[in-house]
Write a structure and sequence with these properties.
Blueprint: H1 15-35, E1 38-39, E2 45-47, H2 48-52, H3 57-61, E3 65-67, E4 73-76, H4 81-89, E5 99-108, E6 120-129, H5 134-151, E7 157-162, H6 163-172, H7 177-188, H8 192-201, H9 206-215, E8 219-220, H10 223-233, H11 238-256, E9 263-266, E10 279-284, E11 293-297, H12 301-304, E12 312-318, H13 319-332, E13 345-349, H14 355-367, E14 372-374, H15 381-390, E15 395-399, H16 401-405, E16 408-413, E17 418-423, H17 427-432
Parallel strand pairs: 1-5, 7-9, 13-14, 13-15
Antiparallel strand pairs: 2-4, 3-4, 5-6, 6-12, 7-10, 8-9, 10-11, 11-12, 15-16, 16-17
Helix pairs in contact: 1-5, 1-13, 5-11, 6-11, 7-8, 10-11
The structure holds adenosine monophosphate.
């Protein structure tokens, strides 16, 4: 039979990686709790209609799409936002606002696998729905900053833009929606020349072209300076000016939070998902050229799904890439990558006749909260101790007939290489100290 492999783009997490994954997840959960985000769990399989409604061509073309046995067109979710918006448009419709909702899990995209790019993707996702105020945008950014700090990332930076600046120009040029989206997708991939060609063939004005060519050059960490220049450049496009003002309000709040965030404003920044209407954010680290997180404001999505008009802002953090960045960071500092073993005990019966007693004592230890393994390979004492040492265990509890008759076992400290006789009822205490 052929050797089985994981499906292309899917991966296994072995213990060290699984531990890191769960650690990042638990940090995300703590941040959610600190900021008041309640966890929800939504299905991985959703209707294709829901997922494709406003995702944009790029995401749509990469969905894992199939018919279920009932003939329904369904897909594996390529993101969380559509599911959360569905809930807010339906089940949660009459609940008081704002909603602060948190999710963690896998999403699926048929991306071309490479370093930092997979087809099964772990994300932690935060959605803040019900407020159009800049404080909400600032909260999502600050929450992401807290999360990146909590997982232990050292050098990370935010790229921030506003989809309304570009959209304002497009709208005044009366550019049709699907061309707008196609241009945004190209800009998202930094294919600016292709985007300009498309705009030219759509017949936009000379002035629009020159404004856009100048706009995409505007980026930098002088937040006020860059936003002022954006506002000046788009001064004849009313909606774009409003958007620049909105971005300025958001970033002023972020600066006033005194969190010392590394920010770059980028006027030509666009994101692939079609539903964005306002500020957009991504997070980067120097070692990786792909984003660790991405999000933005989407004020129309919930009403598009049949709900009440509900402005919203959200972000998804890419856990796989955060893990990669953390592993890089450790490597650069020469820190070990492996599992940090906690104190562990191996219970070894001197002979097979004592298996029952050994099981009894390992149960006592487990019930006392001590991580304990039983020697189950039928190994002789020296082999069993060798194996315990190889696996960096802390103690061996040796069960011998003679000691047991007096109600004792032998506790061997595998680090200090000393052993003592201990009363059975005191074993847990002995291995804890
Ligand atoms: P997006 O909304 O597309 O920007 O996705 C949010 C985050 O998910 C990105 O910033 C990445 O960290 C992560 N992500 C998206 N696609 C992939 C992928 N194919 N492989 C790994 N991570 C991904």
């Amino acid at each position: 039979m052929a050797e089985f492999k994981t499906v292309r783009g899917m991966r296994d997490f072995l213990p060290a990686e699984a531990k890191l994954l769960r650690n990042v997840e638990s940090k995300a959960r703590s941040v959610a709790k600190l900021y008041g985000y309640k966890e929800i769990v939504t299905p991985i399989v959703e209707s294709y209609d829901l997922l494709s409604a406003k995702a944009g061509e790029e995401v749509k073309s990469r969905m894992f799409l199939f018919k279920d046995l009932g003939g329904r067109d369904v897909a594996l979710r390529p993101e969380f936002t559509a599911s959360v918006a569905r809930l807010v448009a339906t089940t949660l419709r009459n609940e008081p606002r704002p909603f602060r909702l948190f999710s963690v899990g896998t999403i699926y995209r048929y991306d071309e696998p490479q370093r930092g790019r997979y087809r099964e993707i772990w994300q932690t996702n935060y959605e803040l729905m019900g407020s159009s105020r800049p404080e909400a945008d600032a909260e999502i950014l600050l929450l992401t900053n807290s999360f990146m700090q909590a997982v232990g990332l050292k050098k990370f930076a935010f790229k921030v833009g506003h989809i309304g600046v570009l959209k304002g120009v497009f709208a005044q040029e009366q550019l049709v929606e699907n061309v707008q989206s196609a241009v945004m997708q190209l800009m998202d991939k930094k294919q600016y020349e292709d985007a300009f060609k498309l705009l030219e063939s759509a017949g936009v004005s000379e002035k629009c072209m020159s404004t856009l060519r100048e706009l995409v050059k505007l980026k930098g960490s002088d937040v006020k300076g860059i936003i002022d220049r954006i506002a000046d450049l788009v001064k004849d496009y009313e909606k774009s000016v409003e958007s620049a003002k909105n971005l300025s309000e958001i970033l002023n709040l972020v600066v006033k939070s005194k969190c010392n965030i590394d920010l770059t404003v980028d006027a030509g920044f666009a994101r692939g998902l079609e539903y964005y209407t306002g500020a957009i954010i991504e997070v980067y680290v120097p070692d990786l050229d792909v984003a660790l997180a991405g999000g933005g404001r989407y004020d129309r999505l919930i009403e598009l799904f049949g709900g009440d008009p509900t402005p919203a802002m959200g972000i998804a953090h890419g856990v796989d890439r955060i893990m990669l960045a953390l592993q890089e960071q450790k490597r650069a500092q020469n820190l070990p990558q492996g599992l940090n073993e906690e104190k562990k005990v191996l219970v070894i019966p001197i002979n097979q006749d004592l298996s029952g007693e050994a099981l009894h004592i390992s149960q006592m230890l487990v019930n006392a909260g001590v991580p304990t393994e039983l020697e189950i390979m039928g190994r002789k004492m020296t082999k069993a101790l060798e194996d315990a040492n190889r696996r960096n265990m802390s103690y061996a509890v040796i069960i011998g007939e003679r000691e047991l008759k007096d109600g004792n076992v032998i506790v061997r400290d595998l680090v200090q290489r000393v052993q003592t006789k201990v009363k059975v009822e005191d074993v847990a205490e002995a291995v804890r100290n």
